[in-house]
């Protein structure tokens, strides 16, 4: 819950009302952020159950679509240590160029979150934007 309280003020800022294609530096917005973790201990004869999960919807002011991202971990105790790159769901359909992708890393102990998105814009070629934030 501490993580959610830290992420919400940083990522729930409003994007500009500019239409696609967006001019200037793209603005990432994370919406519908869900973070959960559980650690269930039992008797010494039984294995403990432990996992963490984070998911969100990523919007980018430079593209006309939303990308869903999620990651899970079973590494005790903070679950996310920034050493795994989680791949977001691949988008297809109208407005999505071939090769469009997104991924993220998250370190709960360090309080850092990074998102990377790659896309193409008609007449402007291939673009990539990386944002690294401390939370």
Mean pLDDT: 76
Q: Which overall shape is indicated by the principal axes computed on the Cα atoms?
A: elongated
Question: What oligomeric arrangement do these chains adopt?
Answer: single chain
Number of strands: 7
| Topology order in helix (H) and strand (E) letters | HEEEEEEE
Low-confidence stretches: 1-20
Write down the domain tally.
1
Class by helix and strand content? mainly beta
Number of helices: 1
What is the terminal-to-terminal distance? 13 Å
Q: How large a portion of the residues is in β-strands, by DSSP E?
A: over 45%
Spatial order of the strands in the main sheet?
A: 4-5-6-7
Radius of gyration: 17 Å
Largest sheet: 4 strands, antiparallel
- State the helical fraction: under 10%
Topology diagram in text:
Elements: H1 2-11, E1 28-40, E2 49-60, E3 66-73, E4 86-87, E5 101-107, E6 112-121, E7 125-134
Antiparallel strand pairs: 1-2, 2-3, 4-5, 5-6, 6-7
Tell me about this structure.
The chain has 135 residues and is mainly β. Strands 4-5-6-7 form a four-stranded antiparallel beta sheet, with no helix packed on it. A three-stranded antiparallel beta sheet has the order 1-2-3, with helices on one face. The chain is built from one helix and seven strands.
Question: What does this entry show, briefly?
Answer:
It is built from one helix and seven strands; from the N terminus they run H-E-E-E-E-E-E-E.
